[in-house]
Design a protein that fits this description.
Elements: H1 2-10, H2 13-27, H3 37-51, H4 62-85, E1 98-101, E2 104-107, H5 114-120, H6 128-135
Length: about 140
Amino acid sequence: MDNDVIRDALTTPYVTTLIRVKALQLLKRPGFRRSERHDLEQDLRTQVLKMGHHYDPARGAVSTFIDRVVDSAAAMIIRDCRRLKRSVTMKIESLDRQVHVGEKPQAMSDLIDSGTVCRRLEKEDCSPLAQAERTSLPI
């Protein structure tokens, strides 16, 4: 019976907005991409359904229960993301390391162009050529 209450509550405007807002908050953190929004929302909803059997109407409202579950699920998603970044299997290299390009060694940081940095940060292309194209007036 409690799972029916939880399922019904998942379709309310409050819970739908709560889950959407929490997913958008997660997307502002490093390690998440805008394209993952729907996946994050689905993960949060799934966690609410998994934890639904713990809901006790005598202890509080269903919206409060869902709020706590969503907050905990978001914290676990962040923890899992950080864990992947610290993985032992990941090879970490310093951008100060010298690599041979042609005849002379260069720091790896010198080889990264601004377009690459913008793509990694999911920003608009910030290269000088792209900026000039955006600011030029139509003929």
